[in-house]
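Explain this fold:

***
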Amino acid sequence: MIYIGIGSNLGNRIRNIENSKYLLKINGIDIIRTSGYYETLSWPDPSKPKFINIVIQSNTNFSPKKLLKIFKIIEHKLGRIRSIRNAPRTCDIDLISYRNRILSNSISIPHKSMNKRNFVLFPLFEVAPHWKHPKSKKSIKKLIFSLPIKDITSIKQI
């Protein structure tokens, strides 16, 4: 299975996410399951607009490199402007996990910070409650419970 994270903190955040899902589908990326919407403070600067995030499960045959190329095209199409790192954005699409593989060349899989991010772990748990981190072999539950308490209490499903 492949897990993809989608987030937005500018404009109509839910519409941006739904448009992202639509554009993934028409680009040949099937969606098997979708989590609910999770709202969190912007990271790393909580003074920025709040994010809404989801995780989708797919079983596409595209390579990680091809997926990332499609993600960049969709982000651009939906108005993402790449300026400073972690700036607010209409759309952010990340490859979270790819068939339990570990890659660390030009692409890092699983996503290198996913185990520290509530906005990835909570929606991933919803779509894949038995998922294990390919590198650490920790269960998704164990990863969630190792988050700081403020990260567990500050996320809300909407």
Remarks:
- The chain has one domain: 2-157.
